[in-house]
Amino acid sequence: MTPPDLNFAVIGPIVWASIGALLVLLGEVLLSRTKTFMGRSVSDSYIGSLLAVVAMLTLSAATYMAGSLAVSGETLAFNPDNPMLQLDRYSALFTGVLGLAALLSCALSMHYLDELRIHHGEFYALVLFSTAGMMLLVAAVDLLPVFLGLELMSIPIYVLAGFDRGRLRSNESALKYFLLGSFATAVMLYGMALLYGAAGGTGFVEIRSAMEGGGTLATLGLALLVVGFAFKVSSVPFHQWTPDVYEGAPSAVTAFMSVTVKLAAFAALLRILVVGIGGAGEVLGPVLWVMAALTMLVGNLMAVIQENVKRMLAYSSIAHAGYLLIGFVAGTAQAQAAIVFYLVSYVFMNLGAFGVVVALAHRGRECEHLDDFTGLAHTRPGLAALMALFLLSLAGIPGTAGFMAKWQLFTAAVSTGHLVLALIGVLMSVVSVYYYLRIAVRMYMHEPGEAPPRVALGSGEALVLTVCSVAVVYLGVFPNGAPVGADLPVLDWARASAAALAGVAQP
């Protein structure tokens, strides 16, 4: 029997992330037993910082490998005879962005975990394991690695949500996320089983053949699969967990999961619908239309009444899931490219907003209420300006990445005749300006409170806020690359990745 010709370059980024996680776990065990020259134990802060550097180095290698494959334009299957995993322009782009987002999250967490006195090396191992699961998920062209990727992504995040073990609220968020996430996973797995029964296989190509033939079994399996993904992306009516988990989890964890989980889940769902289903179609299209409209309405209207900034950003995240679903309803190549560009832009503007919340944590205390931002422009003018920039981008103000991303989506919707859905998106974007500007008003038009914010900014926090702010402005002004200097045509990359979306290797 001839052994399969395996291409290990396809799983290279996943391997780098996994190696990093194992090195972090092993390093914490060895370093915790190390003594200084004075015979004292090495501090948790020093160990955590050193392991964070290890995690970022391995994530840099994973990001570089994925970026190289994305630029080359090659389409590689792990096993050409049974292509369960594929790295093409689409999956390589998302893999690279996931690696970069995880790297920035690790840098953002270093000083924050010290402030909350929970700086332990296993934090970075959990981030790396979860990132490996996300990379597996976006490279999957078969339901088996989709399920494995979802579980490897989710289980570490359940633990991370309760990482601040001394806070009851953190423990509650972890338990709630675990219970609801387990239920959603069970529903999704049952849908996969039904699709397997209808198609006789788990590959996306086989599933598409079954869907074209029709049948109740395949339709029901698809419905349950969409329900599971709707939970992961926080779409109405499966969004109830999001505000509680975002509020209860440590802010650094919320920053990580708010961008990476949405990125990986939407990327996988888009590939399943395009490759495995052939688009939303007549059955799924109206369902996604209603989900998109309700998600935008509920997310934005509920965000208006929030006093906790993390809960407000949670409902904002729900609203952005609704905007993204507009692209799924439109279903054209233009809409798919708009989804890719929106997800890339969302990483920087949302991670930046949570980065400011993380940078304000002080002496074991989170700064997450609106009152904590009162007068911030007087005490920390730089942070206030950055927060205003990220909020304006989330609202979709011209000159920012958020505006360009929404413009692409709404244009795609109008061009396919979904004028009402695009109009709802525009109106809800106007509503979002109100609750985003509430924070800006608190920062710039009120006097500082009695408790001063933290003055020092960690090097990792400074790096993340700088990268995110530059990316938000760059993508808003030069989506196709600057005329001078470094040429980063992100919008063209999004279009190329969307064009490669249906290029599934045939057995």
Can you describe what's shown?
With 507 residues, this protein is mainly alpha-helical. The chain has 19 helices and two strands. The protein has helices at residues 12-32, 44-72, 89-115, 122-139, 143-161, 168-199, 204-212, 216-232, 241-248, 251-277, 281-304, 309-330, 333-359, 376-379, 381-395, 401-415, 419-444, 459-477, 490-499, and strands at 76-77, 86-87. A two-stranded antiparallel sheet has the order 1-2. The two termini are 18 Å apart. The model has no long low-confidence stretch (mean pLDDT 88).
Features:
mainly alpha, 507 residues, globular
Quick summary:
By secondary structure, the protein is an all-alpha fold. It has helices at 12-32, 44-72, 89-115, 122-139, 143-161, 168-199, 204-212, 216-232, 241-248, 251-277, 281-304, 309-330, 333-359, 376-379, 381-395, 401-415, 419-444, 459-477, 490-499, and strands at 76-77, 86-87. Strand 1 and strand 2 form a beta hairpin.
Considering DSSP H and I runs of 4 or more, what fraction of the residues is helical? over 70%
Query: What's the helix count?
Result: 19
Structural class: mainly alpha
H/E element sequence: HHEEHHHHHHHHHHHHHHHHH
End-to-end separation: 18 Å
Strand order of the largest sheet: 1-2
Unreliable residue runs: none
Subunit arrangement of the protein: single chain
- Beta-strand share of residues: under 5%
According to DSSP, the number of beta strands is 2
Give a quick account of the main beta sheet: strands, pairing sense, barrel closure.
2 strands, antiparallel
Radius of gyration: 22 Å
What is the overall silhouette?
globular
pLDDT averaged residue by residue = 88
